[in-house]
Amino acid sequence: QEQEPTVGAGSVKQQLSRLVISSLRATVPEVEVEPMVEVSAKFADYQCNNAMGLWSKVKGSGTSFKNPNAIGQAIAKNLPSSDIIESTSVAGPGFVNITLSNHWVAKRIQDMLVNGISTWAPILPVKRAVIDFSSPNIAKEMHVGHLRSTIIGDTLARMFEFSNVDVLRRNHVGDWGTQFGMLIEYLFEKFPNWQEIGSQAIGDLQIFYKASKSRFDNDPEFKERAQQGVVRLQGGEEKYREAWKKICDISRSEFDLVYKRLNVVLEEKGESFYNPYIPQVLAELNSKGLIQESEGAQVIFIEGHQIPLIVVKRDGGFNYASTDLAALWYRLNVEKAEWIIYVTDVGQQQHFDMFFSAARMAGWLPDQKGKFPKTSHVGFGLVLGSDGKRFRTRSTEVVRLVELLDEAKTRSKSELLQRLTENGKIVDWTDEELEQTSEAVGYGAVKYADLKNNRLTNYTFSFEQMLSDKGNTAVYLQYAHARICSIIRKSNKDVEELKTSGAISLDHPDERVLGLYLIRFAEVVEEACTNLLPNVLCEYLYNLSEMFTKFYTNCQVVGSPEETSRLLLCQATAVVMRQCFQLLGITPVYKL
Ligand code: ARG
Of all atoms in ligand 1, which is nearest to the CA of residue 146? Predict the structure, then answer.
């Protein structure tokens, strides 16, 4: 007995796909194919495109179908009856056009208003995912690349979490390695009372790093001591462990300032965490015959790559790749993650390609791409300054992320103040509101400017552009959302009450277009997760606000006979916009 599809679960596409699956089974029981359901731009709302592919599979095998159009007709006819579909038609070589029922669309929106937007979560084929993001290096610069990783990784985590996936948010900080010998010895030298000092005493860790590096490069005696220091640290000597921890703590509290401003949650499992697992993991790879000796190092040769992946350096030490192999082993076997996602700049693509291949060679991952468990590298481009070069600020050669975020807030605050003063609204605002709004708008602008582009492209950092209230910016979208909230407020109607007492109808073409677009939300999140592309969600949010404008221009809301239905559409739009903001890590504002 076939199980009835659960009504209402998953995106519209997923719900239609279930109907199509059962139709396909009835139409061509002899072949097993994936349902192909797409949004249709022209002829209908959705489209099923299975007929042509099926035709090429069954023709010449004594099938009773005469052509792909006949298969399309049969697919349409065999769709189980459902209140989702209003009508179907078949075009050309078997495209099945599907028009959704207005009543069903309206009901789906109203159900969401009543039961919450979590009922619109897509269903994803994974239960647990690791997202490895941000991942700065201790005592080194946390740069704009790490900012991008933090913003992109956080959004992906939010989208997966919304889709009911258990997400392990991992900060894979660079807290291990040979630089610590030099840092620790320098700490002992500079601060004999290092155990007592607070983080302020050391001041800027990046400067500390540079000073210790120059000491290392210029003094052979210090260099010798630093190299010994690494051995003593890795051997577990108490004093060295403690000093290492001190340096990590100072770095961490600096990173946390950034995470706090961005409202990003991460769990730190740094490179040091995986270090104890490396020997056993390499032993396993060795027993599978993957590891070879090359010029004194232990390496894995990988097809299609000129140079091998080094897993033990010539001096016997482990490296970035051996740590990543151990971390992957841990994530697959201990944490039981099915999808492991790494967010770094595209410059690291080769590293990920190579160690993913090594994992496939070891049989940890299936050969077939796309099957679970799987790994993905989410690469992103550079952040450029207005001069087209790598982004830098005037004062220092590096960009201090905290200062950058503070500047976004200051600028958004002064713009807000200016506007409120000009239109005389400043009296309506408390200091706290001003503060919170400029933060939401300022930080949101930085995030959105990053997320709205395809992540692989370089993007130009410009406060003027991101804080503009025109065009595809977070500020524009915040305004659009606040305006909807104000329409609802000014109607003096209680939408909380209306959503159960009233009903939505979609008779006007612009109401229908808006309604259809609203219910696409789940499949947009699904697509953004499947392809790991947050810009897909940004595009949706922007289009949604444009569609709302069109609706609002052509359909009178307050005082019209359709007031109740239209207020509910306003409310649904606001709810969906807010959920998009939430997924993008942006705090929505209700008045602007
Ligand atoms: N710490 C590295 C860097 O700053 C990024 C680490 C990314 N994650 C990983 N598992 N390799 O470039």
Answer: 4
What is the position in ligand 1's atom list of the atom closest to the CA of 174? Answer: 1
Pocket test for ligand 1, best of 152, 168, 171, 172 (most atoms within 8 A of CB): 172
On the question of a common fold for 128-170+270-383 and 401-584, the answer reads no
Cα distance between residue 130 and residue 503, in whole Å: 42
Whose C-alpha lies nearest to ligand 1, atom 7? 135
For residues 181 and 169, give the distance between their C-alpha atoms in angstroms, rounded to a whole number. Answer: 29
Q: Which residue's alpha carbon is at the smallest distance from atom 6 of ligand 1? A: 135
Residue with tokens 């950058």: 404
Write down the ipTM of this complex: 0.99
Residue 500 pLDDT > 90: yes
Report DSSP state, residue 398.
Answer: S
Asked whether 135 lines ligand 1 (CB < 6 A), one says yes
CA 310 to centroid of ligand 1, rounded, Å: 16
Give the whole-angstrom CA distance, residue 461 versus residue 469: 16
State whether the beta carbon of 344 lies less than 6 angstroms from ligand 1.
yes
Which amino acid makes up residue 3?
Q
Q: What is the DSSP string of 351-381?
A: HHHHHHHHHHHTTSS-SSTTSSSEEEEEEE-
Count the neighbouring beta carbons within 10 Å of the beta carbon of residue 119.
13
Answer whether 271 contacts ligand 1 (Cβ < 6 A).
no
**548, 554, 557, 563 alpha-carbon torsion, rounded to 10°:** -110
For position 383, what pLDDT does the model report?
A: 93
Q: Domain ranges in the chain?
A: 12-100, 128-170+270-383, 179-263, 401-584
For the domain with range 401-584, which CATH number is right: 1.10.760.10, 1.10.579.10, 1.10.730.10, 1.25.40.180?
Answer: 1.10.730.10
Phi, psi of 267 (to 5 degrees): -110, 120
Of 461, 459, 469, whose CA–CA distance to 592 is shortest?
469
Q: What separation in Å is there between the alpha carbon of 241 and the centre of ligand 1?
A: 22
Nearest CA to ligand 1 atom 3: 136
Angle of helix 521-530 relative to helix 144-162, nearest 10 degrees, comes to 130
CA 172 to chain centre: 17
Locate the ligand 1 atom nearest the alpha carbon of residue 342 and give its number: 8
Measured in angstroms, how far is the CA atom of residue 149 from the centroid of ligand 1? 10
- From the CB of 356, is ligand 1 less than 6 Å away? no
- Confirm or reject: Cβ of 153 under 6 Å from ligand 1: no
- The per-residue pLDDT for range 274-316, each reduced to its tens digit, is 999 999 999 999 999 999 999 999 999 999 999 999 999 998 8
| Domain at 128-170+270-383, CATH homologous superfamily | HUPs (3.40.50.620)
Regarding the beta carbon of 149 and ligand 1, being less than 6 Å apart is answered no
Please state, in angstroms and rounded to a whole number, the distance separating the CA atoms of residues 3 and 17: 14
The CATH number of the domain covering residues in 12-100: 3.30.1360.70
Query: What pLDDT, on a 0 to 100 scale, did the predictor assign at position 7?
Result: 55
| Strand, helix or coil for residue 344 | strand
Identify the band that residue 4 occupies on the pLDDT scale cut at 50, 70 and 90.
very low
pLDDT of residue 295: 94
